[in-house]
Specification:
alpha/beta, Beta-Lactamase, Rossmann fold, nine-stranded mixed sheet, six-stranded antiparallel sheet, 13 helices, Flp pilus assembly CpaF family ATPase, P-loop_NTPase, ATP hydrolysis activity, AAA+_ATPase, T4SS_GSP_E_ATPase
């Protein structure tokens, strides 16, 4: 593991220190003047149905207020006989304050860096940054105190979510999508030291294609053609892998092969897929998000319920961002009852262990299915499992295994590995591994067999 130092601004300082005095003066000016300035710029028109001022315009107004306050603060410091901060430090404090009010606080510089993939905040002053090339580096504190970090996360929840997202002792976990598409997960008071901690993960692409993944080394041309055929032949696909393996990215890439006018309903715990954001790629998408209970403990809607509701919305395909509980049964029912071509992701350490994970989730659901019933349901619903892992260099995410589901027997799902990990950990299609009727389905939608040729292929049921 390589550690490098990520240069970010230092903490604002203790009360009475020059940086702290400047920061307090700028925040006071924004709190006092911002409401009237925004209203004068047209915010009051919202009462009559007009559009709200965009955040970029609000930040511009804020910068004008801050610059005026900075000049007044400098004059007051000189009159008090105090030394002024240098211009570079003043600029840092100004940007910090603007980020706190209009952006993501001291997280903003890290999120503005395109090479940053994951931000791990173990506590407000212990931060580690994971880069896309595999490097890891300690970073400067993202808040002055635990209370400030907690308040920042509550502010992000209020801004970013379409529904109320609590973050308090009664609801100490928060999962949401940030305005830039990053995914934040935070906990309150559950760590060993009782402090707030969070992790922010960024996806490399908001829209992705199989061709992009091939160019990035995730798969080769042969697998690209094979996966494209799976989508076009409307095979139900389960994508597995560990945390950060690229499951959501691959799901987006597979979705890019669907007809732009297919009716898609997506189900997520927190919005992340974003298939509804580009009508040119997906013109008919309804994106549904689970909802937490309100302060009275009512109004919760889980993914299992959303899958059932989604089936009433006339979908051609149903996509579950991540199976993690009771939604496994309604999802399998959707796959096996006419919504062919549906997809989901699942945390699993291998393509084979995915079936055990599905069975454990099904056993925990309200239906309490037996192993035999669960195996039969999964075997009738899932056609292929595509597993992601990291290549030998641990930086590139690759497809490591693909399994075709064959049948169920004695409470177990029977599957056949059709693509197996090669020397560089990338999967390679195995000659003759596909069942003949499956190969016929893929050929019918334009698949040209290469390694999985008909010549010498064993006739499979």
């Amino acid at each position: 593991m390589t550690f490098i130092h990520h240069t970010t601004a230092a903490p604002a300082g203790e009360p009475g220190e020059p940086r702290h005095r400047l920061r307090a003066r700028l925040r006071e000016a924004l709190a006092t003047e911002m409401p009237d300035r925004v209203e004068a710029a047209g915010e009051g028109a919202t009462a009559g149905g007009g559009p709200m001022l965009p955040n970029s315009r609000r930040r511009h107004i804020g910068r004008e207020i801050v610059e005026t306050a900075l000049a007044a603060h400098s004059e007051a410091e000189l009159l008090a006989g105090r030394a002024l901060l240098d211009s570079a430090t003043e600029s840092v404090v100004v940007e910090q304050v603007l980020d706190e009010v209009f952006g993501l606080g001291r997280l903003q510089p890290l999120l503005d860096d395109p090479s940053v993939e994951t931000i791990v905040v173990n506590r407000f002053d212990r931060v580690v940054v994971h880069y896309a090339d595999g490097r890891r580096a300690p970073a400067a504190p993202v808040a002055e105190s635990n209370d400030e970090l907690t308040d920042l996360i509550r502010t992000l929840a209020a801004r970013a979510s379409s529904e109320e997202r609590r973050f308090d002792r009664g609801s100490p976990a928060l999962n949401l999508q940030l305005p830039g598409g990053e995914r934040l997960f935070a906990v309150l008071g559950l760590t060993a030291s009782g402090v707030t901690a969070c992790t922010i993960r960024r996806h490399g692409y908001r829209t992705t294609t199989l061709a992009q993944l091939r160019r990035g080394g995730t798969l080769d041309g042969e697998l690209e053609q094979f996966l494209r055929a799976l989508v076009r032949a409307r095979k139900n696909v389960l994508i597995t892998g560990g945390t950060g393996a690229g499951k959501t990215t691959l799901l987006r890439a597979l979705a890019s092969e669907m007809d732009p006018f297919e009716r898609i309903v997506t189900i997520e715990d927190a919005f992340e897929l974003g298939l509804d954001l580009d009508p040119s790629l997906h013109a008919d998408v309804t994106a549904l998000q689970a909802r937490q209970p309100n302060v009275e403990g009512e109004g919760a809607i889980d993914q299992a319920e959303l899958v059932r509701w989604g089936l009433r919305m006339s979908p051609d395909r149903v996509i579950v961002g991540e199976i993690r509980g009771a939604e496994v049964i309604p999802m399998c029912n959707a796959m096996s009852q006419g919504n062919d071509g549906s997809m989901a992701t699942l945390h699993a350490s291998s393509s084979k262990i995915a079936f055990t994970r599905l069975a454990s989730y099904a056993a925990q659901g309200p239906e309490r299915l037996s192993l035999e019933a669960t195996a039969l349901l999964v075997a009738s619903a899932v056609h292929f499992v595509v597993h992601l892992d990291r290549a030998c260099d641990r930086t590139i995410r690759v497809i490591a295994s693909i399994r075709e589901v064959v049948d169920a027997e004695a409470g177990a799902v029977i599957s056949n590995e059709v693509a197996r990990r090669g020397p560089d950990r990338r999967a390679v299609l195995l000659p003759g591994a596909l069942r003949t009727d499956t190969l016929d389905d893929l050929v019918a939608v334009g698949y040209t067999p290469d390694r999985c040729t008909r010549a010498g292929q064993e006739r499979r049921p």
